[in-house]
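Handout, section B. The chain below has 383 residues.
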Amino acid sequence: MGVGYGLGVFSWVPTVHGGDEAAWLASLAWTVWISALSVVLGAVVADRVGQPTVQSSTAVRVLRRAALSIAAALGGLVVVALTAVPARVAERADTFAPHLIVGGYAIAGVLLGLFISVAALVARSIAANVLATGGWLWLLAVTAVADGIAAGRQTVVAQLGSWPVTTDGPWFRSVYLPGAAIAALAAVVIGFLAALPAARRRDGQAGVALSGAAGPALVAVAYLLAAPKLTGALPEQLSAHLVAPYAVFAGLIGSVLALVLCSPRRPRPVKAATAPVPPQYTGADATPAPAVPAQATPDKSDADRTGSLKDTSGKEASGKAASGKPAYGRASVAKAAPAQAAAEKPADEPTADVPVSDTPAGTGDAVSPTAGPPSPKQPRKKR
């Protein structure tokens, strides 16, 4: 407030019958903007200084941010006294108490700053955009006043966010083109640079995308509250009021570009390479192939004992099975063939290799020494 009053950025000079209406409206816009910015600045600084050292729950963080915003709003009420008291020297034809009007605008700015400060504590990109925009507007106002003094022009109140580079235009439908270009370009650049660190940190996408509109929105709302109806406004003031809403969209473009172009891309998940599995038939009629054991070496004694053994069907028991597949070994087939052949023949037919003895039952049977093992005794059929 001291810098603004000292340089003449805004002033409550005596005005009668609307002689300096532009200065009055510009000072009201500066009052709203300064009070809102002071609340946001106080909340952000308090949040950065008093960072908690322990992990807290979501409810505790919400209550902490609300307490900081309310405390900053209480501190921002100082602007009410710093503007209302000097405004008592103002003379207005439409009111007998201009200081009350100025105090009301300061309170409106504090409430606006309370709302923006909550968003600034949630998203760091919003806080960065508001503070960067505030620094740029102060730099622009000081430059405009210094340029007027250097050019020998009469000291006038500076418009919020506008710099009259030239005195004769160019103009386009009540819009001062140099001022509009400076405001739009500054909103895009600030929106991009303020959202760039947050986009690289992978902060919330909604906060990063909307951060570009935070700073210009404060200027647009300040102009809207200062002059809801632009009746009888001077050309330079009308241009500043018309350009402020478009600066909001320009800031959005800058923040969205930072989110799209500078956010790190997440790597795609790498799938483990697996060997191809051949298709297998898993139907109901699928039977597993039998395991083929190693061929057994036939014993010489077994080969002599079973030299020309034949089965009941007349087929020779060889090293191959009936299906054409390798058998399970000649030795095992040779040992199992006599018992199988004896079991398959009827009881009343004697085997080819085992002679029937005339010895009575119970005294034992004579068995050829070169024959295989005797067949089990079968009971004779009664005729």
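Note. Residues 9-50+58-165+172-262 form one domain. Compare this with the example in section A.
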